Amino acid sequence: MYKRLFHFTGLIIFGLLAIIAFAATIIPIFPSKEWYVRIFDYPRLQTFFIAVLALLWYSFFYFKRGKRGYAFVFMFLVVIAVQGYKAWPYTPLGTKQVLWTEGDGRDTTSISLFICNVLQTNTEYQEVIEKINKYNPDIIITTESDSNWQKALQVIENKYSYRVPIPQSNTYGMHLYSRFPLRETAVRYLIEEDIPSIRTGVQLISGEWISLFVVHPRPPVPGESKDSKERDAEIILVAREGRKEKGGVIIAGDFNDVAWSETTELFQEVSGFLDPRQGRGFYNTYHAKFPVFRWPLDHIFHSSHFKLIKLERVGRVNSDHFPMFVHLSYKPDEKTDQPKVKPDDDTEKDANETIQKSKNDKDAPGE
Questions:
Q1: Residues 14 and 142 in one domain
Q2: Cα separation of 113 and 249, whole Å?
Q3: Does 96 have pLDDT greater than 90?
Q4: What is the mean pLDDT of residues 263-269?
């Protein structure tokens, strides 16, 4: 009796997991921008592994017990197929979008960046400073940095003569520190009046100029935004701006979006920019304190003018994000060596609709 009850209970749990995982896989396919739809863009890896483990469990306890649970098995197989397809490009088995540079690449055309969401309430400033000193980057980008963080980071200013401070207390402050000269620097509020972004030119040691964009849009989660319209519009607007630049371009920051979402895929199609993670790993940067719930939110995309020297997820700094470090070599003469991100027939239409939805939302009564 107890054995039969055990197997019946196990089958119910198996079914509930199947329904949840299947729903979490199918819901992101819908084009809705509401937070309760877009939130399922994030846990693709989690649902993939739930499906794999559940099928192993089923095979061991239930496979030889007739046809019970076969509908749930089918659901899990769909989950594995869809989520595996989405995750594949970010495994070492996927195609590398960005090629390694020849030699160590450490010459007058290289540039290194340290990107860190510091967590505004984090007061362990020294943790971040120690990581900066260890990696010694040419460019430092911080997000969620307020006036307290600005004051704490004054100790690094002797190494970084060029700075763009935007201290804000709403968790959307950002700071840029550079040892390379900057020009035509602009702080913009592209979509929302309290969400800044940075656009600037950066001069390499070789004397060549590249363009750098820094973003940190608001995420579609309760307490922040009821939908992803503003986030998506800002990401696509920056993609279009970057595409118009003639030389090398880097776009970095906390996108509050995962690498495999429809919006980030559209960003790559619109901009034509490359993701150095593809073919190398997920480099999950959030949540630093909960290993089970991690996904890549902090990104570095760049034009095909660059090749990769080093890419690393940095250790914890008491934030809910891991910092990222990337070292790139500017090789404009070799840009044709790398795979191209090609837009499909609907790319421009989708980009226009994404931007227009945000405008319509702002123009609506009561907004």
A1: no
A2: 13
A3: yes
A4: 95
Q: What is the pTM of this model?
A: 0.92
- Both 148 and 83 in one domain: the answer is no
Burial of 280 (0-12, 13-18, 19+ CB in 10 A): middle
What Cα–Cα distance (Å) separates residue 292 from each residue in 134, 316, 349, 355? 28, 16, 37, 34
Query: How many CA atoms within 13 Å lie on the side-chain side of 229?
Result: 15
Cβ atoms 250, 212 nearer than 8 A: yes
**Same structural domain for residues 151 and 249?**
yes
pLDDT band at 359 (very low <50, low <70, confident <90, very high): confident
pLDDT of residue 14: 83
| H or E segment to which residue 163 belongs | strand 162-166
DSSP element (H, E) containing 312 = strand 306-313
Q: Tell whether 140 and 276 lie within a shared domain.
A: yes
pLDDT band with cut points at 50, 70 and 90 for residue 57: confident
Query: Tokens standing for 242?
Result: 């970057």
Phi, psi of 256 (to 5 degrees): 50, 35
Helices (H), 227-261: 229-244
Residue 115: which residues within 8 A CB-CB, separation 6 or more?
141, 143, 252, 253, 254, 298, 300, 323, 324, 325, 326
Same structural domain for residues 84 and 180? no
- Mean pLDDT score of the chain: 91
Give which of 91, 93, 107 is closest to 328, Cα–Cα.
107
The rounded distance, in Å, linking the Cα atoms of 216 and 311 is 21
Written as one letter, the residue type at 13 is I
Neighbours of 223 (CB within 10 A): 7
Is residue 210 within a helix (H) or strand (E), and if so which, with residue range? strand 209-215
Domain containing 330: what range?
110-355
220, 226 contact by CB (below 8 A): yes
The C-alpha atoms of residue 220 and residue 213 are separated, in whole angstroms, by 22
